[in-house]
Amino acid sequence: MITKIADGIYARKIIVAGEPWPLTTYLWITKNHNLYLDAGLGENALLELSEYADPSKKNTLVYSHYHFDHVWGGHALKDPEILAHRRFLDHQVHLEKDRLNLIRFAEGKNEIALPTRYIDDDLDFDDELRILYAPGHTDDGLMVYHKTLHILFMGDVAADEGRDLPELAGSVDSYLATLKKLEGLRIKQILCSHRDPEDANYLNILVENAYILRKNCQ
Ligand SMILES: [Zn+2]
Ligand SMILES: [Zn+2]
Fold this sequence. Notes:
Largest sheet: 7 strands, mixed
Oligomer: single chain
Number of helices: 5
Distance between the termini: 43 Å
Number of domains: 1
Shape: globular
Radius of gyration: 16 Å
Bound molecules: zinc ion
Strand content: 25-35%
Order of helices and strands: EEEEHEHEHEEEEEHEH
Number of strands: 12
């Protein structure tokens, strides 16, 4: 199901059969881009979202991280620029393994289009966007902030529906540092991959939960 969240901001949400988690993939139509935030579980996600795209704009796809539910189907777009964090490269072996082993999740063809541009750190992208390096859930995490609409895409830096925190591949401290980066930003809405949109207060909840986890780990 595709819903319009704000002007030019579209969300495609699916319930993954047999799994407790929903998955949402986004299209943001910005000044110059049809910006796709993640590719989903196969070509269907981007094909359906692209019906809402502006054909006069450039197709750009961001991989929030290397996990399979975010990277299948990038080939469905015409000549996209594909951005990922440089550490995405370290996980290439997982990409192909997951593509074959987890094919039961695929929605349409599940090919992986490799990134065309790698990001090392936070980056102002175009006039309206800022891409933020977000280690914690994985070491190659990226979030995207829309500077004029004040919308933040967190991907899996947000917790799955019904959970307090995402799974953390890195230390709790690195995750907390990622959340702290967001403190100065004006945020009206937070978009997540596996839970419905949240408001800015959700960041405080994540920070609190991360402190509790850190305390329990000591
Ligand atoms: Zn993930
Ligand atoms: Zn995920």
